[in-house]
Amino acid sequence: MEEYIPLFLTKYNYWVYITLMMIGLWAMIAKNNLVKKIVGMNIFQTAIILFYVSIGAKYGATIPILQHGSGHGHEAAVHAADYINPLPHVLMLTAIVVSVATLGVALALVIKIHQRHRTLEEDEILEQLRES
Amino acid sequence: MSEQYPALVVIGPLLCALLVSVAGWLRPRLCLPLAIVGLGIAAAASTGLLAQVLATGPVSYRLGGWAPPWGIVYYVDNLSAVVAALVSWVALFNLAASYRTAMTDYPEKIGPFYTLYVLAVTGMLGMVVTGDAFNLYVLLEITSLTGYALIGLAGGRAPLASLNYLFLGTIGASFYLLGVGYLYIVTGSLNMADLAKLLTPLYGSLALLAAFAITLVGLWMKMAFFPLHAWLPNAYGFAPAPAASLLAPLMTKVMVYVMIRVMISVFTVEFILQEVALSQFVVWLAVAAMVAGALMALGQRDLKRMLAYIVVAEVGYMVGGAWLGNKMAMTGAILHIINDAVMTFCVFLAAGCIYQKTRGTAFEDLQGLFKKMPWTMTALAAGALAMIGVPPFCGFFSKWYLIRGGLEAGHWGFVGALLFSSLVNVVLFFRIFEIAFFEPMSHGHGGHGGHGEQAKAIALTEAPLSMLLPLLAAALGLVALGLATGPLVEKIILPIIPAGLG
């Protein structure tokens, strides 16, 4: 048991992302309202974005802007440990755009569904489809 | 010019999609020509690329001139070149064929329709040529988002089907992204070739196994591999004809391509066969996909939905072939990507032609169609024979390779399921031919009045020429591909089969 405690405490970013992901997944599966499902989907995507952002972070590191860049005559070596890894964060800019676009498409579809069925509760929609 | 082909394949249609969306506001009439220009550039560039790759070997293109592990590189070998050519030509033919149906299925939305169409093809082509794992995710989402919109733009039950597709598709893409994240943690790279090099010393690591499993589940979700197929039948069944005949042939096939690319170029076959050791399990899943797809197709009373379930079974063929773990089966799986794209296109386009005339594809709507639409039904018959696997048609040859691969691996379940699903295809399609050939045009079914029905019977003639020509071209393509199997396998497929396969 004791050897798991440090595992839990030092890798807490993974636990946070897994928890959030499962909350999102649960909402997508268990919720009856389509908009709530969409919210769940967004939580699911955000969990993965958080995962990426957390793996770029380092203790005691600063934002990745070189303080003593080249061009001043003396080429200072760059210590990678002094700067957080910007790549996962840059990747997530794209992923955020994708997730916003997905949200937009999903909401537009929900509007079309509401126009036709006058409800957003999934069981009521399925009921209507069964009757027709 | 020719060294820019890999970029042109993607940039050409992308820029044209922008122009089409502008034209949609100003001059809707210009949309179709602009879309044709965009896909024409892609088709020409991908054909040129295929010739170039066959002549001089794989092409590596640095976007923006950045060197590979840091910059994004487009890497084109035989496999990607042939799939890119296939995607762009099928999309171009389908665009020509959907000129009429787009007017009726997307009234008032011609501009958005053509924009989404061209963007979807851009995304697929990008996925095929890219050599960067994260870039692939972005292009995958471009294709998926446009696909959801293409399906959901139509009325009726399509928006709900599209929303379900969106939920499951987003989970699939997110899993892929998560898998790429794990790969990035263990290697610090996103370039596929670089990843393959960096991963070799890491075989046996649990994180790597997790990355592989998560990536694969995500891709399976996107390709509707059996237990994860729930979105496909409704999405493709309720999709309007032009969207169905674009997405059904290409989307699943491109995803199978991505799976094979990830299997052989990022992780290697050695890793998959020795470290993962799940081949048996996956092949049995593929067996389940074939049997379940075939059985569920039997239960349908609508042509398009039946075809959608056949697609589920076909995905089982390709995944099973890729996982059997020998050269013959892998050849069959890759050949089946090509063949299945053309035959699925042929049958879905035929269904679209029928829908254009009868306004329905339920089995009752098919009565007497051989007399009314002889050419359309001939093309449907050609597609059906290819799907069953009758010799001069292409379906036979890929199934032949798959079965030989199954026998070589000693996997009787796979061989049996493949034969079973082919035999069920016989039943499925001959049931349709029986209805369309022998049952006379019924009068007054489906709650229509007698008058309307008579008017329909008179109006029912052959599909317009703009649809018929691409359809017949696809049907002829089935025979041509079948006859060209020898050179196709020898020149294109065999050189890329990894040597590690038994």
* Shape, per Cα inertia axes of chain B: globular
- Strand tally of chain A is 0
The arrangement of helices and strands of chain B along the chain is HHEEHHHHHHHHHHHHHHHHHHH
- Report helical residue fraction of chain A: 55-70%
The assigned structural class of chain A equals mainly alpha
Percent in strands of chain B: under 5%
* Strand residue percentage of chain A: under 5%
In CATH terms, what is the architecture of chain A?
Orthogonal Bundle
Q: Characterize the overall form of chain A.
A: elongated
How many β-strand runs of chain B?
2
Low-pLDDT regions of chain A: none
**Total number of helical segments of chain B?**
21
- Tally of alpha and pi helices of chain A: 5
Mean pLDDT of chain A: 86
Description of the structure:
The complex is a heterodimer of chains A (132) and B (502). By secondary structure, chain A is an all-alpha fold. Helix content of chain A is 69%, strand content 0%. Chain A has a single domain, classed as Orthogonal Bundle (Helix Hairpins). Chain A has helices spanning 4-10, 12-30, 34-56, 86-117, 122-131. In chain A, helix 3 runs antiparallel to helix 4. The longest helix of chain A has 32 residues, at 86-117. Chain A is elongated. By secondary structure, chain B is an all-alpha fold. Chain B has a domain at 278-502. Chain B is globular and about 65 Å long. The relative contact order of chain B is 0.09. The model of chain B is unreliable at 444-455 (pLDDT under 50). The A-B interface holds A 25, 28, 34, 37, 41, 44-45, 48, 51-52, 55, 87-88, 91, 94-95, 98, 101-102, 105-106, 108-110, 112-113, 116, 125, 129 and B 134, 137-138, 141, 145, 148-149, 152, 155-157, 159-160, 162-163, 166-167, 170-171, 173-174, 177-178, 181, 184-185.
Features:
heterodimer, A: 132 residues, Helix Hairpins, 69% helix, B: 502 residues, mainly alpha, two-stranded antiparallel sheet, 21 helices
